[in-house]
Amino acid sequence: MLKLFRHLKPFRFAVIASLAMVMLRALVDLYLPRLTADIVNIGVGNGDIPYILRVGAIMLGIAAVGGVCAVLGNYFSARAASGFGRVLREKLFSHVENFSLHEFDLFGTASLITRITNDIMQVQQVTMMSLRMLIMAPIMSIGGIVMAVSTDPTLSLIFVVAIPLLFLLVTFIGRKGIPLFQAMQEKLDGLNLILRERLTGIRVIRAFNRDEYEKKRFHDANLDFTNTAIYVMRIIALMMPVMMLVMNFTTIGIVWFGGIRIDLGFMKVGDLMAFIQYGMHIMMSMFALSMLFVMIPRASVSAKRINEVLETKPEIVDLPAPKKADQMRGYIEFKDVTFSYHGAERPALKNISFSAGPGEVTAIIGGTGSGKSTISSLILRFYDVDSGSILIDGVDIREMSQEELRSKIGYVPQRAFLFSGTIADNIRFGKEDATLEEIRQAAEIAQAAEFIEKLPDKYDHWIEQGGINVSGGQKQRLSIARALVSKPEIYIFDDSFSALDFKTDAKLRAALKKETANATLIIVAQRVSTVMDADQILVLDDGQIVGIGTHEELLQSNDVYREIVLSQLSEEEIA
Ligand code: ADP
Ligand code: MG
To answer: pLDDT per residue over 296-311, tens digit each?
Structure first.
């Protein structure tokens, strides 16, 4: 929790202002009962109307000052706390953006979202409460006690019983609630996870008639969360009546014993009235303090979850002085690369070595799960290799900046992903300052122009979140256009032609060939017809390269390749 507070620094003015206002208000609250006592003792006691009016006017003035201070104090504390929340969200978000995919896998998207929203909200709220009460409560309780004792030391003995009693009760109740807060945040994570999955997978759920099952899954998680929340809230809700009870009994005690003391002539009526007010202030601030002691642990659960994210060092960071890779263009070299995903038993890739150069098409073919997409991810440095190295343009990719590396590459992922925005926006994602002409050209090569021109808004056609209002093949072609528009040195097509019909596939590859004559192409594919005319074909099986060569060479010498070919083409086509 404390560690997070250094992010409050930009708001120190608001923090100080709020604390000052709160302090001023506490002083006002402590002084007012004194004046009440004077009015009753001197004014009412002597029937001195002008005195009552004079002191009454002063009281009104002071009370007004107190009111203004209260408003300003609340304003500044809200400002500081919400600014604090904003900064934390920004910090967390930009930190998460630097995560490699390993760290994403580690936390999970749902938990990251909860941490950035709900957990920060908790911390923000407690910060606001602390600003309002952490200074106020001690001043009020200590000041109140001092004033009460100076008014009537004997009667003050009541607090010796009342304060510890209140404190004990409140902390006892609070203790029970705290461990449950952690559980509550975790259950919220679980709820978000199911919700996210359910919403993104709605089509599959419908298609397989799993609505009922999914509904039940959500219902269970929701109920689980609710039950914990209700249990916690019930415990916390006990606080208020308990403290009212203690407070009211204290007041009864004050009036009771005070009455006796007035009878005996030890005390004046006005002093009793002031005393009751001090009693209220003391008990209230004690209560506020103990509530804070309950709330702070709750927020520190959240703070811990935030810190966990902030303290996770991204596995992939740029070197302080990255090397430039501007001597060559379009060279890729894998040197004996082995890689495993965290937590996986077996490496996803073993001893991969190959090279690719400009003007060449390198195709990668292999069954599902053979590691084709993993090769693409490694070239983009989404993950770091375990051993061996990957050189791009002669430089190890770990020694160049991620920005330079990725600017060299046009990547079309296996699962096309579009953002909400227009078609032009989505293509421009590949190159921020692309002109409409460049966008058109890219769409033309990607065989997307034809269907875009048929849309009423053409390039301004709005794509919904996740690209749900275009077909799979259209999505593919748009994401190909997005990669083409930046005219990179290296293109990686990860199974990007699978959603296209054979004719479009062939047309697209013909157009690509012209456009990318000087670039390096990596084409991952399942179809033999897509890879047949590549300059070299890597045959991947279970994370290992079992053959490299041209179509003819492999057909002669490689069993795995021949098997794939035979399963897809007829004898005549092969001949
Ligand atoms: P392909 O693209 O050839 O179908 P992948 O490269 O996607 O295969 O996957 C290779 C292997 O790595 C598979 O066994 C798969 O289960 C595993 N794998 C892929 N992605 C991850 C991941 N993020 N975490 C753990 N294992 C993964
Ligand atoms: Mg794949």
So the answer is: 877 888 888 899 888 8
Read off the amino acid at residue 488: P
Superfamily in which the 4-310 domain is placed by CATH:
ABC transporter type 1, transmembrane domain (1.20.1560.10)
Where do the CATH 1.20.1560.10 domains begin and end in the chain? 4-310
Tens of pLDDT along 402-427?
Answer: 888 888 898 988 887 888 888 888 88
- CATH top-level class for 332-574? alpha beta
Residue identifier of the C-alpha nearest atom 19 of ligand 1: 374
Q: Return d(Cα 293, Cα 287) in angstroms, integer.
A: 10
Among the bound ligands, the one closest to the CA of 414:
2
> Which ligand number lies closest to the CA of residue 498?
2
Helices marked H in 312-339: none
Is the whole model's pTM more than 0.70, yes or no? yes
Structure tokens, 276: 């009751």
Mutate to test the pocket of ligand 1, among 373, 380, 411 (most ligand atoms within 8 A of CB): 373
Closest ligand 1 atom number to CA of residue 372: 3
Contact at 8 Å (CB) between 135 and 212?
Answer: no
Alpha carbon nearest to ligand 1 atom 25, residue: 341
Spacing, Cα 101 to ligand 1 middle (Å): 13
- What SS3 class is residue 546? strand
Question: Sorting pLDDT into bands at 50, 70 and 90, what band is 80?
Answer: very high
- The answer to whether 479 and 416 have CB atoms below 8 angstroms apart is yes
Give the number of C-alpha atoms closer than 13 A to the C-alpha of residue 104, restricted to the C-beta side: 11
CATH 3.40.50.300 in the chain is located at 332-574
- Residue of minimum CA distance from atom 6 in ligand 1: 371
- Helix, strand, or coil here: 413? coil
The single-letter code of the amino acid at 185 is Q
pLDDT tens figures, 356-380: 988 888 999 988 888 999 999 999 9
Q: Using CA atoms, how far apart are residues 164 and 573, in angstroms rounded to an integer?
A: 92
Q: Give residues with Cβ within 8 angstroms of 110, minimum separation 6.
A: 189, 192, 193, 195, 196
Cα separation, 299 vs 296, in Å, equals: 5
Closest CA to 327 of 395, 279, 269: 395
Q: What is the 3-state composition of the chain as percent helix, strand, coil, each rounded to the nearest 5?
A: 65, 10, 25
Pocket of ligand 1, beta carbon within 6 A: 105, 341, 344, 348, 366, 368-374
